[in-house]
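Reopening: Ig-like domain-containing protein still failing for me.
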Amino acid sequence: AQSVTQLDSQVSVSEGDIVLLRCNYSSSFSPNLFWYVQYPNQGLQLLLKYTSGPTLVKGINGFEAEFKKSETSFHLTKASAHVSDAAEYFCAVSDTVPETAGELNTNLLRC
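Support: Ran it again with your exact input. Result attached.
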């Protein structure tokens, strides 16, 4: 079984601020971890994902996330917020074992 917890339901930042959206996961196996973004009136878009290899993952629009197994975390960061980053961000986990469901959780970023 697996789950994700996003520790902040809403994050407000000013333009130019550092963005931090926290996500912790629980998984019985080696996890695949994902961040999705949903801009207003648009569908979900994959921002970045971790499956294996280097633990620092760079995504689109300057976002990155680091897989920290010891902390069971996959926090999303960006060095400088832009007004266009205002959206809902979803952290998701899926076990690498076939045919197991994943879990998706969300929080809101306001700029």
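The two ends are 35 Å apart (CA to CA). If you still see a failure, please send the error message rather than a screenshot.
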